[in-house]
Design brief:
GO molecular function: electron transfer activity; FMN binding; oxidoreductase activity, acting on NAD(P)H as acceptor; oxidoreductase activity, acting on NAD(P)H, quinone or similar compound as acceptor
Family: Belongs to the azoreductase type 1 family.
Number of domains: 1
Distance between the termini: 11 Å
InterPro entries: Flavodoxin_fold, Flavoprotein-like_sf, FMN-dep_NADH:Q_OxRdtase_AzoR1, NADH:quinone_OxRdtase_FMN_depd
CATH topology: Rossmann fold
Radius of gyration: 18 Å
Catalytic activity: 2 a quinone + NADH + H(+) = 2 a 1,4-benzosemiquinone + NAD(+); N,N-dimethyl-1,4-phenylenediamine + anthranilate + 2 NAD(+) = 2-(4-dimethylaminophenyl)diazenylbenzoate + 2 NADH + 2 H(+)
Number of strands: 7
CATH superfamily: Flavodoxin domain
Oligomer: single chain
Structural class: alpha/beta
CATH architecture: 3-Layer(aba) Sandwich
Shape: globular
Order of helices and strands: EHEHHHEHEEEHEH
Subunit structure: Homodimer.
Strand content: 15-25%
Largest sheet: 5 strands, parallel
Length: 207
């Protein structure tokens, strides 16, 4: 088993997604003693946003790319290689302003690439995910409660987007652990963290 952990919170010691992810990885490794684990921190070291040259290189056949094109895509290729290496993805993605952090969006823009993680057939207008055979676990803290049926549910552009983009590249087995109400009083906030922790510890034994 090979686990790729991607953390996107800009916080370090006070990050709920980071601390819960750390606990999950420790518990998961106890049940998978020979598992391999890699961590990519796009919260403290975000990838560069695509540029005009990057886009031109992306849509140029590999054999026709200039050295400059190869260079501008090199970090993206490294990120994709990590993604394709993994059997399991652990994504720490706090909700920022109703959606994913911008640094995580930059990561996605680097790994969601035609003929690398998805394919498009111009004749049939069909899409095919290429990052298949994987599963993903997403830990997403948020300031309020965006669960279905709540008044804030319509403002959640984080979980639906994550599920959609992961399925787009071929990962449909997605588990999302939300940690809501993190701007509420401590008693409520800690209760939500403990609820998420309980779910994650149970999942570590079977995931």
């Amino acid at each position: 088993m090979k686990l790729l952990e991607v953390q996107s919170s800009v916080r370090l010691e006070r990050s709920v997604s980071r601390s819960l992810s750390h606990e999950f990885v420790q518990a998961w490794q106890m049940n998978h003693s020979h598992a391999q684990h890699k961590m990519r921190d796009v919260g403290t070291n975000p990838p560069a946003h695509p540029t005009e040259l990057w886009t031109q290189a992306n849509y140029t056949p590999p054999e026709a790319r200039t050295l400059e094109m190869v260079g501008v895509l090199s970090h993206s290729e490294q990120l994709i290689a990590e993604l394709l290496w993994a059997d399991c993805l652990l994504l720490g993605v706090p909700m920022y302003n109703l959606s994913v952090p911008s640094n995580f969006k930059a990561y996605l823009d680097n790994v969601v690439r035609v003929d690398r993680t998805f394919a498009f057939d111009c004749e049939t207008f069909t899409l095919q995910g290429l990052a298949t055979g994987k599963k993903a676990l997403v830990i997403t803290p948020s300031a309020g409660d965006y669960a279905p049926g709540t008044p804030m549910a319509k403002f959640d552009f984080c979980e639906p987007y994550l599920r959609a983009i992961l399925e787009f590249i071929g990962i449909a087995d997605v588990t999302v652990i939300t940690v809501p109400n993190q701007f509420m009083p401590d008693e409520i906030r800690h209760q939500q963290i403990e609820t998420a922790r309980t779910k994650l510890m149970a999942l570590a034994a079977t995931w």
